[in-house]
Specification:
By secondary structure, this protein is an alpha/beta fold. The chain has two domains: about 20-170, Alpha/beta knot (3-Layer(aba) Sandwich), CATH 3.40.1280.10; about 185-250, tRNA(m1g37)methyltransferase, domain 2 (Trp Operon Repressor, Chain A, Orthogonal Bundle). It has helices at about 1-10, 40-45, 85-95, 110-120, 135-140, 160-170, 180-185, 215-235, 235-250, and strands at about 20-25, 50-55, 70, 80, 100-110, 125-130, 145-150, 200-205, 205. Strands 2-1-6-5-7 form a five-stranded parallel β-sheet, sandwiched between helices. It has a two-stranded antiparallel sheet with strand order 3-4. Strand 5 (about 100-110), helix 4 (about 110-120) and strand 6 form a beta-alpha-beta unit. Bound molecules: ligand 9WO. Ligand 9WO binds near residues 103, 129, 130, 153 and 156.
Length: about 250
């Protein structure tokens, strides 16, 4: 494991073909230990479908105290991330093909359509804000796209970065099994999921819907689609509207 890891780093250039590269810039690399080391994302990394590199912005400071933040001009509470180490880090990592993303509540709302757009990139660079955020000149000069995962304020952009990585990596060809990707490609993609059941057939008096035991795959598929539609209409009518919009957008590009 150790050996293959060092090989991958050494020969990183060889992995650019089918390997999506994701570089994450943060002041707290420790936050990323764990989430990418389990389950499907870990498997995708082991199979070189994606390379995820965590970079400590503090490593790009040069002063004795490794200062990455400073007080805001104009006053006010909190600290702002200094531009110099971020510029240096991004300028070292990026190529012509890089797509630089800043995670902020002020960004474009993240959804499945945006995940599908991002999976077409070859190199994602995710910048996580900490404290009060980054110096505005970083956003103006370096950031291609700002993304929000929802309307709430967190302590950092680290968890949003993980969410974007998770949603994008599972869309990479080969990450999910054939069966799962087939479902993804189908028209059901813009709906909420249908109900799922496993054994036992009767649990505490609650029965599995008869149709799922019928063995009639046509009927089962219809039932699932019907359930998904019903749920979506009832709980998230906005998703159905969004799906229509996506459709017309995709026709344009
Ligand atoms: C703090 C704040 C305080 C009062 C009113 C508005 C405010 N906004 C913020 C703020 O955005 N702070 C950020 C904390 C600075 C950058 C990192 N932080 C962050 C990113 N919090 N939440 C996100 C985030 C990113 C993507 N999607 C959702 C939330």
């Amino acid at each position: 494991m150790k050996n293959s890891e060092s090989c991958k780093i050494h020969f990183a250039g060889l992995f650019t073909n089918n390997t999506m590269i994701i570089d994450i810039l943060t002041l707290f690399p420790g936050m990323f230990r764990g989430p990418f080391e389990e389950s499907i994302i870990q498997k995708a990394r082991e199979r070189d479908l994606v390379r995820i590199n965590i970079h400590n912005i503090r490593d790009y400071t040069h002063d004795k105290h490794r200062t990455a933040d400073d007080r805001p001009f104009g006053g006010g509470p909190g600290m702002v991330m200094k531009p110099e180490p971020i510029f240096e880090c991004i300028e070292k990592l990026r190529t012509e093909k890089s797509h630089v993303i800043y995670l902020t509540p002020q960004g474009r709302r993240f959804n499945q359509a945006l995940a599908r757009k991002l999976v077409r990139e070859t190199h994602l660079l995710l910048l996580c804000g900490h404290y009060e955020g980054v110096d505005e000149r970083v956003r103006e000069a370096l950031v291609d796209e700002e993304i929000s995962i929802g309307d709430y304020v967190l302590t950092t952009g680290a968890v949003p970065a993980m969410i974007v990585v998770d949603a994008v990596v599972r869309l990479l060809p080969g990450v999910l099994g054939d069966a799962e990707s087939a479902v993804q490609d189908s028209f059901t993609e813009n709906l909420l999921d249908h109900p799922h059941y496993t054994r036992p057939e009767i649990f505490r008096g609650m029965r599995v819907p008869e149709v799922l035991l019928s063995g009639n795959h046509q009927r089962i598929a219809e039932w699932r689609r019907e359930q998904a539609l019903k749920r979506t209409k009832k709980r998230r009518p906005d998703i159905l509207e969004e799906a229509k919009k996506d459709e017309s957008e995709n026709k344009i590009d």
